[in-house]
Amino acid sequence: xxxxxxxxxxxxxxxxxxxxxxxxxxxxxxxxxxxxxxxxxxxxxxxxxxxxxxxxxxxxxxxxxxxxxxxxxxxxxxxxxxxxxxxxxxxxxxxxxxxxxxxxxxxxxxxxxxxxxxxxxxxxxxxxxxxxxxxxxxxxxxxxxxxxxxxxxxxxxxxxxxxxxxxxxxxxxxxxxxxxxxxxxxxxxxxxxxxxxxxxxxxxxxxxxxxxxxxxxxxxxxxxxxxxxxxxxxxxxxxxxxxxxxxxxxxxxxxxxxxxxxxxxxxxxxxxxxxxxxxxxxxxxxxxxxxxxx
Length: 294
Prior knowledge:
alpha/beta; transcription; 9 helices; LysR family transcriptional regulator; LysR_subst-bd; elongated
């Protein structure tokens, strides 16, 4: 019986929440995952998980074993990484999560440049506007465009972007250009859904943040789709400048209500704090800082 393997299986069950999710991740059958758990509990002589058809709950012994076992597994991974690093070659897989717009527009060229420098590294990038929980181990780095950070992570600012209001010249010719925030109530708005502010847009009024509820005609969790809709004259959009740069350059969109523009949002590379950082992580973070500074 491989105790380290069984410990790893148990820790992933706790983090992913189901036997089937762990089986899928490890490319094993659910029956095999159950067998590993049974072996572990038998060898320890205690029940680690209370299992029902609908839920899994840690026992007090399971909680203690998970906390200690997770630390041991992290220590082992760090030992292997630090030993491999003695060969002075940066290699391995780095898993990153990025917002759909920022990842799709800016990260692909950045990754291409990084891989030119470190060809033995593989990059797995998932695009999702909902930030992942780094503690479950699914990602090494999470890129965030935000003004709110998890206090339990390391956050390195790699860039910033302004949050502005944009519309197509043709739309403004037909509907008129709003000059005040109150004028927005008479316009068609295109609303980005995945924000902590719900149906509200944020503005700067005399140095203070002000929320305005808009009457949207189209809402989406995809910023690219909303910017395209705005460029087609469907309405007014509030978006980070990084999402609309190409439309501004082509003249398809123009910025309006500049006096109410919010302070710039920071773009962070976030990762868990640990005693040892593998070379693939440190080189990637350092590269992003230099790349986006240029």
